[in-house]
Structures are given as structure tokens and as C-alpha cells.
Specification:
Elements: H1 4-8, H2 22-34, H3 44-52, E1 63-67, H4 72-85, E2 90-93, E3 105-107, E4 110-111, H5 114-128, H6 135-149, E5 154-158, E6 175-178, H7 186-189, H8 193-200, E7 210-212, H9 217-230, E8 234-236, E9 242-246, E10 249-253, E11 257-261, H10 269-282, H11 292-301, E12 309-310, E13 325-329, H12 334-347, E14 353-357, H13 365-369, E15 378-382, H14 393-403, E16 408-411, H15 414-424, E17 430-434, H16 437-447
Parallel strand pairs: 1-5, 1-6, 2-5, 6-7, 7-8, 13-17, 14-15, 14-17, 15-16
Antiparallel strand pairs: 2-3, 3-4, 9-10, 10-11, 12-13
Helix pairs in contact: 2-5, 4-10, 4-11, 5-6, 8-9
Length: 448
């Protein structure tokens, strides 16, 4: 077992992907090498795995289950902030992590301790034996195990991919929250919005409430049809609840009405995510949390790293002259690019915008970058040299130039990309690192 001081102390500088704690890095890597990322062939395998562990999924606190293309993590961040502002505690399971693996498994409001994670890895490995199990299924089972054993008031659960056959969907009852649907993972989920929505709709449980964020009419139709089949009461944005921004505040109107400060999280889309979370609470056993002071405190304290996060101190931030701004945003699909474009417009031209980017292979490059043409003064494709399947910088630059980015250049690494901008311009500029959660996580790690 790790000594607590050892686990908490700064580790020697070295390359790591999952955790700066060497024992955790080794253990998680061993599972990754042994297990495929996913095995989307139904839920029988994860159910069999959980049965060996005593079916912890049936012993957890009430579950809020979120699926969608964008806004899942932010919606859960709002829920966590609301619960905690009301004096309650939550477990939270998310993926992927940005900097260290322990971010994925939040236990009663805190990231899992490294020594506890190692104990549970050993327990799940022994239960799995020689059975085939995916990486995501392994750690879903591990999270459910500790959530069943540790007191908390609720579980906040994010799907890994899709909904129907996602390992998290072994639960039998939950409040379902369906965030915005757009194009992502089309090779696995389908190449039309109704097809993707059909997979996400799988989290709607019989007789359990379903909260639907603003969607296209064709997506709403899929969700309402699934809800009718399951006898699930639905609460649809624009019909049953709404949000409206008014200056430095926004109004939520549902069964209740609240006027609240704009969330600490930047971007107009975060008001919608906040509204989705409020609607979830409003139609749950925790509706009594919905009080003006509680919600106000939640809006003022909510955090979600890597989403329009300004880096004001640290290794990368310190490379910039006074008055410059450095931001990181994990946008990586079409709707994420639309949000980024809207925020660039809101920022205006006072500080010209520059993008430093990377993009995951086999994803829709054009669908992301075409929405940003004409917005940045320059764009650099960076070679992050990280353990992630990113498009090579020169290849990405060629694509960017073909799309209309005249000033697209490759960069050796994040530091050189930032330094080159600081040398080129004498007035304050704004830089945003975006296009990949892998790249944003790398930036946060480098920044310290």
C-alpha cells in the first residue's frame, strides 16, 4: 500500500500517461495492454463481470445518467456543484481524464486515492480472471464497486460511448439526461443524427424521468419515441423547461423559476448545460435542493477543467508577455467548433485569436475546422509527442490550407508554438489550444 505522504508528494519528472504515481501508471497500463478499449457487443459481458463482484450496480445510491455528444461532463459538473452547494455528496464517473487517471473516479466528492485504486484494481483483476473484458468495462466495474461500498447521496454517471451498449448502462434505474446530439464516433454510432440519437436513447429507463436538452426536431422525435416505449416521463427543452440569458444573469423556467448569475464556466452553451442539470434535479427525489441561494452558489463555484479554461500561471502561461491570454478548450467535433466560433465572436477583435491544435485520427477533421475558417489570425498544428492517435502536423496543415486557412503551420511542440507567437507580435494576443482532449490534457500537464 502507498504511504499517503508518498502518494501526495511531487513525483520525479518523467513521462507518464495515467498517473504520476508509478505504481498506478504501471497497473493501469497493464490493463490497457491486456484489454481492448471497447468491445461493443452488448451488455452480457459487463453484467457477468459485475455478478462476480456481487452486483454492486444494484447497491449504489440514486443515479443521474448522462449521454450525448457534447456537454456531458459540464452537465455533471453542474449537478455536482448543486449537490455540494446543498450540503450533499456525490460519486462521479467520467471519461476520459485530462491529466491523471484518478480524475475519472470521484468518490464522495474527491478523486480516488492512488492506494485505494490499486487495491480495487487487484480485486477486479482477480474476479475477471481470464475472461475477456474491455478497458472501459474493467474500470466501470471498479467504480461501481467502490460506489456501492462508500456512502454518498447520489451517483453521477457519464456514458463512455453511445448508450445502448455502454458498460454504464447495466444500471436498471436512473434519471436520464440527454445533452446535445451532433456528429461524433460515426463509425460506431451511425452517420445520421437520428441513428446516433437512437444509440444515446438507450439510457432511458422504464418509468424513470428523461431530461432532454435542446435538440433538432428529428433527434427529439427519437427520444420521445423511446420514452413512450419505456413509459418514461420526459422533460424537453423548449416545451417543459427553458433558459434565457439576460445580461449577466440567466433565467431558468421549469416547474420552478430562478434568476441566477451566469455560470463560472465560460460560454453561452454552459447556460443550457446548467439548465439541463437543474431540470434533472427538479424531476428527481432531490428537488428540495432547488433553492435560490443553493443554485446561486453552485453557479459561482462550478468547475470543469479543459473547457474554455484560462491558464494564467504555470510553465506555458509564463512563456507569454504581459497582457496576453492563453486558453485551453477540449472542443473536438462539429458542435464544439460552433461553440468555439461563437465564443471567438463574443471576445471580439481587441486581442487577435491564434489557434494551436491537434486532432484525433479517424475523426471528422473537416466537420470541425470548416466552422473555424476565417476566425483565427493563425493556426498551428502541433506535434505533441504524446501517447495518443493524433493526425501528423504536416498532414493536418495540408488539410487546413485546403479548407482556407492561409496561415497554417506545423509546430514542433506546444512551447515552440507559443514562443513563436510571442516573438511575432508586439501587442497582446489571445491563444487557444483546442481540437483534442488529449492535447488539452497534455497542455494542462505541461502547465503544471
Amino acid at each position: 500500500m502507498l504511504d499517503k505522504k508518498e502518494a501526495a508528494a511531487p513525483q520525479p519528472q518523467r513521462e507518464w500517461t495515467f498517473s504520476p504515481v508509478p505504481a498506478v501508471e504501471l497497473a493501469v497500463n497493464e490493463i490497457r495492454l491486456k484489454s481492448p478499449p471497447m468491445l461493443p457487443n452488448g451488455l452480457d459481458r459487463p453484467k457477468q463481470m459485475l455478478a462476480k463482484l456481487g452486483n454492486p450496480q444494484h447497491k449504489m445510491p440514486p443515479v443521474f445518467h448522462v449521454a450525448g455528444t457534447n456537454g456531458k461532463g459540464s452537465t455533471l459538473a453542474f449537478l455536482q456543484s448543486m449537490f455540494e452547494a446543498g450540503g450533499l455528496t456525490v460519486h462521479k464517473f467520467i471519461s476520459p481524464h485530462l491529466v491523471r487517471f484518478e480524475e475519472r473516479i470521484v468518490v464522495a466528492g474527491k478523486q480516488i486515492e492512488p492506494d485505494h485504486l490499486l487495491e480495487l484494481i487487484g480485486e477486479v483483476k482477480r474476479a475477471a480472471g481470464d475472461d475477456e473484458i474491455s478497458f472501459f468495462e474493467f474500470f466501470t466495474a471498479l467504480a461501481f464497486l467502490i460506489y456501492a461500498r462508500t456512502p454518498a447521496d447520489a451517483v453521477l454517471l457519464e456514458t463512455g460511448l453511445g448508450g445502448n451498449y455502454d458498460a454504464t448502462n447495466v444500471i436498471e434505474k436512473s434519471i436520464a439526461l440527454l445533452t446535445r446530439i451532433s456528429y461524433d464516433h460515426t463509425r460506431l454510432l451511425g452517420d445520421t443524427l437520428p441513428a446516433i440519437a437512437g444509440e444515446k436513447a438507450g439510457i432511458i429507463k422504464r418509468g424513470c424521468p428523461a431530461i432532454v436538452a435542446p435538440q433538432s426536431p428529428e433527434v427529439n422525435e427519437v427520444f420521445l419515441r423511446r420514452a413512450a416505449e419505456m413509459g418514461a416521463p420526459t422533460f424537453v427543452a423548449g416545451r417543459d423547461w427553458s433558459t434565457e440569458v439576460r445580461g449577466n444573469a440567466f433565467t431558468y423556467q421549469g416547474k420552478n423559476k430562478f434568476t441566477l448569475p451566469l455560470p463560472k464556466l465560460l460560454g453561452g452553451h454552459q447556460v443550457i448545460n446548467a439548465g439541463t442539470a437543474i431540470a434533472g434535479l427538479e424531476n428527481s427525489p432531490f428537488a428540495s435542493l432547488l433553492k435560490q441561494d443553493t443554485l446561486t452558489r453552485a453557479m459561482e463555484t462550478v468547475t470543469w477543467p479543459g473547457r474554455f479554461q484560462q491558464l494564467t500561471r504555470g510553465h506555458l502561461a509564463d512563456l507569454l508577455p504581459k497582457g496576453w491570454e492563453l486558453w485551453a478548450d477540449g472542443a473536438h467535433n462539429d458542435s464544439g467548433a460552433e461553440v468555439l466560433a461563437a465564443q471567438a465572436k463574443a471576445w471580439g477583435d481587441e486581442k487577435p485569436l491564434h489557434i494551436i491544435t491537434g486532432f484525433k485520427k479517424k475523426k471528422d477533421t473537416d466537420g470541425f475546422y470548416e466552422r473555424l475558417v476565417g476566425i483565427p489570425k493563425s493556426i498551428q498544428a502541433v506535434d505533441a509527442r504524446i501517447d495518443a492517435p493524433l493526425v501528423p502536423p504536416q498532414e493536418l496543415c495540408d488539410s487546413l490550407k485546403a479548407m482556407g486557412f492561409a496561415n497554417a503551420q506545423p509546430a514542433d511542440n506546444l512551447e515552440s508554438a507559443i514562443r513563436s507567437l510571442a516573438l511575432q507580435f508586439t501587442t497582446p494576443q489571445r491563444i487557444i489550444i483546442t481540437g483534442s482532449l488529449y492535447l488539452v490534457g497534455h497542455a494542462l500537464k505541461l502547465n503544471g
